[in-house]
Amino acid sequence: MNRLRTAILISGRGSNMDALIEAARRPDYPAEIALVLSNRPDAPGLAKAKTAGVAAAAVDHKIYAGREEFERSLQLVLEAYRIDFICLAGFMRLFTPWFIEQWRGRMLNIHPALLPSYRGLHTHERALADGVKIHGCTVHFVVPEMDEGPIVAQAAVPVLDGDTPETLAARVLAQEHAIYPLALRLVASGVARIEGNRVLGALAASDARLLAPEGPA
Ligand code: GAR
C-alpha cells in the first residue's frame, strides 16, 4: 500500500497529533506520519513526537521578517521530507494565500466547534455564553478564508448544565481525537473527495463508524 506521507503541524501540546500518530501505526492506515513540524521550538508536542519515533522539527516564526518568509522555510522543510499532505493540529498561525495555494486540497484542519458556527478563538466560552445545547468539532479542508472550507467530518457533543469552558473543551477534545484520524483515513484512502464546497463520501456524525476508535493496531 502506498501510504500518504503526511506532516502534522502543531503549536502546542499535540494531543490531536498523538491521536493521528497512534492511528497511523495500524498497518492498514492509508497515511504515514512522516514529520511533525512546529512554529514554536518549545511546543510540548515536539518532544512527544520524538518519543513516539516520529521526525520532529521547528521553524520559529519569530525569526522571520514576514509571514511569507516564514512559510517559504516551512515549505522547504516539507519538501525535504517529501510531504504529500498536511494536517493542522492546533497550529495557531494563519497562512497567506500563497502557502494555501501550494497545499490546496491537500491540507486539513481541526476546529473546536461545529463550523460554520464559532469560527476563530475561544469557541467553548462563546458557546456557553450563547447557551447553545449542542457543540462539537469539525475537520475541514483549508481554504484562504479562516475556518472555512469543505467539511470532512463533524462530531456533536451535548452542553451540560454544569459545564465550564474546561469541561466542555474536554468533552469536545475526546471527539476531536476520534474524528481527526477518521477524516484523514477517509481522505487518504480516496473514499472522501471534494466536489465544490462539499466533501462527498464522508460520514455524517450519526454514522456508527464515526464512533469506532482508530485505536492502536
Ligand atoms: C484543539 O482543541 C484544536 O481543535 C484547537 O486547538 C487545540 C489543540 O490541541 N485548534 C484551534 O483552535 C485552531 N483554530 P492539541 O494541541 O492538544 O491537539
Automatic annotation (TrEMBL):
MF-aspect GO terms: phosphoribosylglycinamide formyltransferase activity
* Positions of (6R)-10-formyltetrahydrofolate binding: 67, 109
| Residue numbers binding N(1)-(5-phospho-beta-D-ribosyl)glycinamide | 14-16
By its UniProt entry, which CDD domains does this protein fall under? FMT_core_GART (cd08645)
> Keyword annotations for this protein?
Purine biosynthesis, Transferase
Reactions accelerated catalytically: N(1)-(5-phospho-beta-D-ribosyl)glycinamide + (6R)-10-formyltetrahydrofolate = N(2)-formyl-N(1)-(5-phospho-beta-D-ribosyl)glycinamide + (6S)-5,6,7,8-tetrahydrofolate + H(+)
One Pfam family, please name it. Answer: Formyl_trans_N
- Recorded metabolic or biological pathway in which this protein acts: Purine metabolism; IMP biosynthesis via de novo pathway; N(2)-formyl-N(1)-(5-phospho-D-ribosyl)glycinamide from N(1)-(5-phospho-D-ribosyl)glycinamide (10-formyl THF route): step 1/1
The Formyl transferase N-terminal domain is annotated at: 5-184
**Where, by residue number, is the active site?**
111
Q: Can the keyword Ribonucleoprotein be found in this entry's annotation?
A: no
Where does the record place the site Raises pKa of active site His?
Answer: 147
* Enzyme Commission number(s): 2.1.2.2
Q: Which InterPro entries does the record cross-reference, listed alphabetically? A: Formyl_transf_N (IPR002376), Formyl_transf_N_sf (IPR036477), GART (IPR004607)
- Domain of life according to the entry: Bacteria
Member of which family?
Belongs to the GART family.
- Give the matching PANTHER family: PHOSPHORIBOSYLGLYCINAMIDE FORMYLTRANSFERASE (PTHR43369)
Function summary: Catalyzes the transfer of a formyl group from 10-formyltetrahydrofolate to 5-phospho-ribosyl-glycinamide (GAR), producing 5-phospho-ribosyl-N-formylglycinamide (FGAR) and tetrahydrofolate.
What is the protein name for this chain? Phosphoribosylglycinamide formyltransferase
